Amino acid sequence: MSTNEKVAIVTGASRGIGRAISVALAKEGYKVVVNYNRSLEDAEKTVEIIQENGGEAILHQGSVTDPEKMKEMVDTTVNQLGTVDVLVNNAGILIPKYLMMTKPEEWNATIDTNLTGTYYGIKAVLRPMIEKKQGRIINISSVASISGISGQAAYAASKSGINGMTKVLAKELAPFNILVNSIAPGFIETDMTGDFPDRMLEEYRDSIPLKRFGQPTEIADFASFLASEKANYITGQVFAIDGGLSV
């Protein structure tokens, strides 16, 4: 491939925010590696949408909780496409429960997927990015890491860890021109929020100054900006896109 072509990896890209980010990056000329864990059908739909818009994408199955799968994904990407310019750590889970009701295995699953999975993804792309002396790492955090939201203790802990890691890595990787930022979405209309009880959804919506949930494309547009040359002087930041919830 030409060294002028751009390549992005998006984890958890089979639906929701991950799908929207994949499509947005493809529209900006990126060849997108669509990572998924369970649903091949959903992941293929993401690729189909990208191709319908004139973009290119390849699939890669693997849980972000498996470091060998993450390394394999990056190695395959470099071998097939020549490089990795952007990594979007989007894969995550939310088990909405009060802390006293949260089981140890639910806590561990949340931390393993959201925080440790982000670490595995970043660890895997560092060598090719450092060798190239260029790269963008975009971590999908959550407004739960900024504002206390009842029933999301494990989720908030995992996403707060991502924010802390983002700031440290921004300093560690700046000498290699690798920019690291976090996006902290508020309540976005996805399958994840669709699983919430109606009473909880109404309570959350009422707490948002704009009185609506966001759309996945509103997160994707900002991720696309952070991946662009317009964001060349931005690193180590956590950007809340939440309709004013964290104000």
In words, what does this structure look like?
Belongs to the short-chain dehydrogenases/reductases (SDR) family. One of its GO terms (molecular function) is 3-oxoacyl-[acyl-carrier-protein] reductase (NADPH) activity. Residues 6-186 form the Ketoreductase domain. The chain is built from eight helices and seven strands; from the N terminus they run βαβαβαβαβαβαααβ. By secondary structure, it is α/β, with parallel strands linked by helices. It has one domain: Rossmann fold (3-Layer(aba) Sandwich), CATH 3.40.50.720. The chain has a seven-stranded parallel β-sheet with strand order 3-2-1-4-5-6-7, with helices on both faces. α1 (16-27) packs parallel to α2 (40-52) and α1 (16-27) packs across α8 (216-227). The N and C termini lie far apart (45 Å). The model has no long low-confidence stretch (mean pLDDT 93).
Per-chain topology:
Layout: E1 6-10, H1 16-27, E2 30-36, H2 40-52, E3 56-61, H3 67-81, E4 86-89, H4 104-132, E5 135-140, H5 153-173, E6 178-185, H6 191-194, H7 198-206, H8 216-227, E7 238-241
Parallel strand pairs: 1-2, 1-4, 2-3, 4-5, 5-6, 6-7
Helix pairs in contact: 1-2, 1-8, 3-4, 4-5
Task: List the main descriptive attributes of the protein structure presented here.
Rossmann fold; seven-stranded parallel sheet; alpha/beta; 7 strands; 247 residues
Tally of individual domains:
1
Indicate the proportion of strand residues. Answer: 15-25%
What is the percent of helical residues? 40-55%
- Classify the fold: give the CATH topology: Rossmann fold
Distance between the termini: 45 Å
Strand order of the largest sheet: 3-2-1-4-5-6-7
CATH class: Alpha Beta
SSE string, helices as H and strands as E: EHEHEHEHEHEHHHE
Structural class: alpha/beta
Mean pLDDT, all residues: 93
What is the CATH architecture assignment?
3-Layer(aba) Sandwich
CATH superfamily, by name, is NAD(P)-binding Rossmann-like Domain
Please give the number of β-strands: 7
Biggest beta sheet summary: 7 strands, parallel
Q: DSSP helix count?
A: 8
Silhouette: globular
Low-confidence stretches: none
